[in-house]
């Protein structure tokens, strides 16, 4: 069977999603439907279907008679979300450690070597992409579709804020050390240690975002 091509609204949703994650559509910004139709070369109907998808994912909010805006993630949201995703990704690390075979460990070794290289060179954007790939690899190795589905939904929301953490002084090296701890536990086949290390990694990201918020507030304080 030939694969069914993505519909226009799926393609539009994907492009808008990436623009949101890249910061081209920043939190709180209004989405002008006419301008988006022209930019994406689509009509209003598939665009509006795409917007509905992103509203359902939590990346956009819809206000009656006003339209759609990029979602703004609050400190309360982060406090609520990080403990949950820390538990879920910790469990994914536990299951990945139990199920990984030698070829999986070798592939993760390559990813972690790239992560170390980007950290040494201070390439934050490249580091973030490698970091994301490692998290995805653990979720894939866990081989639990329900776990993957829930984590995927939450990670879309957290991507609105998470990239900022790597700009906190010292955070890049801390993040690297945390990742290496998770990987060391996996190589040692210590499921509980891998789960704890991954959970701590996520919770420390929340701490880093608090530092971002405090620094932003201090710059605005006379």
TrEMBL record:
Residues in HTH gntR-type domain copies: 6-73
DNA-binding as UniProt keyword: yes
InterPro entries: GntR_C, TF_FadR/GntR_C, Tscrpt_reg_HTH_GntR, WH-like_DNA-bd_sf, WH_DNA-bd_sf
Pfam family, one: GntR
Alphabetically ordered keywords of this record: DNA-binding, Transcription, Transcription regulation
Top-rank taxon, per record: Bacteria
Gene3D superfamilies linked: GntR ligand-binding domain-like (1.20.120.530), Winged helix-like DNA-binding domain superfamily/Winged helix DNA-binding domain (1.10.10.10)
Protein name in UniProt: GntR family transcriptional regulator
Organism: Acidovorax facilis
